[in-house]
Design brief:
Elements (H helix, E strand, L loop, with lengths): L4 H34 L3 H46 L7 E2 L3 E12 L6 H9 L4 H6 L6 H13 L9 E13 L6
Antiparallel strand pairs: 1-2, 2-3
């Protein structure tokens, strides 16, 4: 086991304890909202709403920070795997930790055309959409579906559908929990 795993496990346990506390606060708030509503206390409801709005902002900032750390870690995993494969071409394209298997991948960062634009019409035409429907902008495209299609096309060196802007690639990482973990 890595020397850092106990420290990370302790941080994760602290995180889980905080989540448990948060759920208790949520339950308390739910009862306070009901109590204030049942008592006709609009002023209390307003204050609870304000508290929740402020909490939402804090949690959104926390979500952004966690997301940034995850992306930072993902890039480091991808770099680690790439450097390892340079040293050993037979090295696996993933990293097995104590808790999970991390598999980095490069995905196409695409920009889908807006309805009514020339690029939208080109993409609809390429996909065989009737011009009347294209002109009305009836079709919305799935980002995930189109991104997967572009990735498949690029892997097979096939033509990329017109109207899709491939502005950048993005690094993603799949984390799969190990079936049997060390204690």
């Amino acid at each position: 086991m890595s020397s850092i795993v106990p420290e990370v496990r302790e941080l994760f346990t602290t995180y889980l304890d905080l989540l448990s506390d948060f759920h208790e606060i949520e339950e308390d708030l739910r009862s306070k909202i009901k109590e204030a509503y049942d008592a006709g206390r609009g002023d209390d409801l307003a204050d609870i709403g304000y508290f929740l709005k402020q909490s939402e902002k804090v949690l959104e900032e926390l979500r952004k920070e966690v997301s940034a750390k995850l992306q930072f870690t993902t890039l480091r995993i991808a770099h680690y795997v790439a450097m390892r494969s340079i040293e050993d071409p037979n090295a696996p394209g993933n990293v097995r930790g104590t808790f999970c298997l991390a598999t980095p991948d490069i995905k196409s960062g695409i920009k889908l055309p807006s309805k009514g634009t020339d690029d939208y019409m080109k993409l609809c035409d390429y996909l065989g959409v009737h011009p009347e429907y294209s002109a009305r902008g009836l079709l919305g495209f799935s980002y995930r579906g189109m991104s997967n299609l572009v990735d498949e096309r690029r892997a097979n060196e096939d033509e990329i559908p017109p109207g899709i802007d491939i502005s950048h690639d993005r690094t993603v990482c799949t984390y799969r929990k190990n079936v049997k973990q060390e204690s």
